[in-house]
Amino acid sequence: MSLMSVLLLGASLFLQTLAKSPVVHSKAGIYHGRYLQEFNQDIYLGLKYAPKPVRFAPAELIEDTPTKHFNATQYGLDCKGYGSDTNLLVTGGWTQIGEDCLHLNIVKPRTNETNLPVLLWVYGGGWQQGATSDPRYNMSYIIQQSVLNGKPVIGISINYRMAAFGFIYSKEIKETGNQNLGLRDQRLAFKWVNKHISSFGGDPDKVTIWGESAGAYSVGDHINAYDGDNEGLFRAAILESGGAVGAPLNGTDWYQHMYDNLTVSVGCAGAEDTLQCLRDVPFETIAPYGYQGLEWFHVIDGSMIPRHGQQSLTQGKFAKIPIILGTNTDEGFGVNGVNTDEQAINQLVHSKRWNVNEEQATRLLEIYPNDPTLGEPYGWGNRTWPENGLQWKRYQSIATDLTMFAPRRLLAEEMSKYEDVYSYRWDAPKFNNTPNTIGINHFSEIPFVFGNTEQQITPLGNSSANVELSHLVSRIWTSFAYDLNPNGHGVPGVPLWLEYGSSPSNFVFRTDKSYVEKDDDRMEGVAYINRLVR
C-alpha cells in the first residue's frame, strides 16, 4: 500500500470516528461527547451542574450558556475525599482532586427511543470518600444490559462534596445556615438533570435515584427531605445497604471540637471570623485536615433534614415512591476487641455510627445473647474468631442491625403502606484473592451490580455463575428504572420478586440459585431498634 493510500485510509477512519462523535445542543450548552463503539453508547463526562462553590457554602445551579461549546470527553475533577479508596484512585491515576468538582456524567445508549428513563447513581464511602471516576462505578456495563433486555435507560453519576467540605457543622455553621452541603449538592445535581436531561433523550419525569452505603443513606435523606416533597425530581429509588434512618444525627456538641480542631490546624483559631478564615486559606493548606479521626455526617437543619429519619417514617412525612432496598447478609460494622459485656456496652454507647445510651445498650445485650450460633456472620455455626474478640459475633449482629438491617425493615414496612416496595438480601460473596473474607460483607454486591469485568480493584471474577448473577441484578435494577417492575429482567428460571406489602419477604441473590424468603429474622431485636430515635 502506498503512502498516499495509508494517509487516505487514516483520514477516512478519523472522519468516521469524528462523524460518530456525539454532540448535544441544550440550554445548558453544546456538549461534545465520546462514542464508545464496544458498547454502542454516547458518553458525556465532566458536565458541570454548578460552578466552583464557595467553600463551606451552598453551591448554586450553573447558568445556562446555550451557545457555549464544552469538551465532555474526560472526567472532571473529583471532590476531596479521605481514605483508602481515594488514595488508590489518586495513585492509580484515575482521578484528580480539586474544589471545582461539582460535575456529573451521562451514559446514553444509541437508540431510536426517546424520553428514556434515567438511573442516577450516588456513590457511597461514608460521606468521606468516593468519586464518579472510580472504575468500579463505570455505568457502561449496566446500561448495556438494559439495552440487551430491551429496556434501555440512561445512566448518570454525580459528584458531591464530602467530609468537612460537604458536612462541616458547628455553631458557626449553624448560624449561617450552611449545613448538609453535600446533600444539597446532590439535590442541585437532581435539579440540573430535571432541567436538561430531555436534551440528551431522557425523561425528567422518570428518574430513579440510586445509591449504596452513604449513597443509599443520601437517597433516604432525599426521600425524607422537606417533609417528603421530592419536588418532582425523582419517581423511584434504589437503596443498597443504607436507608432513611442511618448515620447519627449529632448536634454541635459532637462536631464543635472537630470544627475547632480544623481552625487550629490551618491557623484560623485566633481569627475574628473563623469561618471566613477557613474559606480564605489555600486549598492545599486545608485539604489535609478535612477528616481528622471522626466522620462528618448529616445533621438536622429544620428543612432538608427536618427531624430524625425514624420520626419522618413513622409520621408519614416522606416521599411516597416505589423503591428497591436491601442489605447484605453480613454487613459487618462491628469492631474488634470486644470480649466482655462491659466492653460491648462501652463500644455501643460511644460509637460514632449510632446514638444509644447505657440503658439501651444493656437491653440490646439481653436481646442479642452471646451465642455464636446466632451471631454474625450468619450460617457459620459455632465457629468463632477469638482473635477478633470473644463477643465479636454478638457485637457484629448488633452493629449490623443498628446500621442496616433494622432501618431497612422499617422503611420497607412504612413505604409499602403507600407504594410498591421490593426488599432483598444479598448472599453472594465478592470475588477475593485472599482467604480472610468472612461472610457476605458490605460492598459485596457492587462488582455484580455494575458488572465491570475489567476493573481489578474489587474484581467480579470470571466464573460463569458470577457473570450470570451480574447480568441478572443489572437487568433487575434497570428494568425497575424503566417501568418500575423488577421482574421484567427477561432471565428464565428466576422466582417472582414479591411486593413487600402483600408478602413481607426478601429476594435472596445467590450465585447458585436465588430464592424468596420471609422477612422474619431477628424480629425482637429489630423491633426494639426501630423504636429508638437515633
TrEMBL record:
Its EC number is 3.1.1.-. InterPro entries: AB_hydrolase_fold (IPR029058), CarbesteraseB (IPR002018), Carboxylesterase_B_AS (IPR019826), Type-B_Carboxylest/Lipase (IPR050309). Keywords: Hydrolase, Signal. This is Carboxylic ester hydrolase. The keyword Cell membrane does not apply. Residues 21-508 form the Carboxylesterase type B domain. It comes from Melanomma pulvis-pyrius CBS 109.77. It comes from the Eukaryota. It holds the Pfam family COesterase. It is an enzyme of class 3 (hydrolase). The lineage of its organism: Eukaryota, Fungi, Dikarya, Ascomycota, Pezizomycotina. Belongs to the type-B carboxylesterase/lipase family. GO terms for molecular function: hydrolase activity. The keyword Transcription regulation does not apply.
